[in-house]
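Translate sequence into structure tokens.
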Amino acid sequence: MTEARKTALVTGASRGIGKAIALQLATQGLNVIVHYKREAAEAEAVVQAIRQHGVEAAALQADLSVPEAAIALGHAAWGVWGGIDVLVNNAGVSYKKHFLDNTPEDVDGFMNVNYKGALFLMQTIARHMVEEGRGGSIACITSVNGIRPGIGLSAYGASKAALESMVKSAAMELAPHNIRVNSFAVGAVETDINAGVRQQPELLQEVNAGIPMGRFGLPEEVAAVVSSMLLNDRYMTGSTITVDGGLLLMRGYGKAAPYTTKDQNT
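Result follows.
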């Protein structure tokens, strides 16, 4: 009798790191559910690319800033093929803003998606796993800014730090059910979010100088690490794996300058 194919749910998988992880898992023989918020056409293109690897794929839409939508996504994904073996919480929002300019809307925006959305989706999937007596593996894509502070990243970094803490607590509580929970603290990776930096030679040179490997990482490089752990781990849980080209090894993280009104628009 052929062993049932495993299924993965990857959030924010219509592009960037999420897309790369979804495709990498497909090459390893997993069926993949591609979550997206707005980019339906891009998500469908990822679905078609996944199917070329001889596995099944489906796309599901949800606004993870709304707890009810995150919970509904978990239930819907579980029902597509009768279960989820791997969950990758990748969806997130990121931008820089001076500490003095952060508004309640900024803080809520970061926390609602980066922390609350991940928490309630993860809780929903984990509850299904517990109720059906099946183990699984959960990965949360966090950030080096959740471990070490950065200029203009106080609110964003706090949301990722909250996710880091939640991962470790959840790992302890879910371990008796053979559900492993780990995080991947990612550094500077080539995505749409930082395209502006990479288009400015002087700024790009400055950023690269703070990375021992001297360059931005590629989404596919992050995906290779994440998929390898998800498919091979048996005893690792509550761990944070850094994928940052050595960025966290460097001393200091940018240089603060006196606040001016121009910071309000950066």
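Note: The chain has a mean pLDDT of 94.
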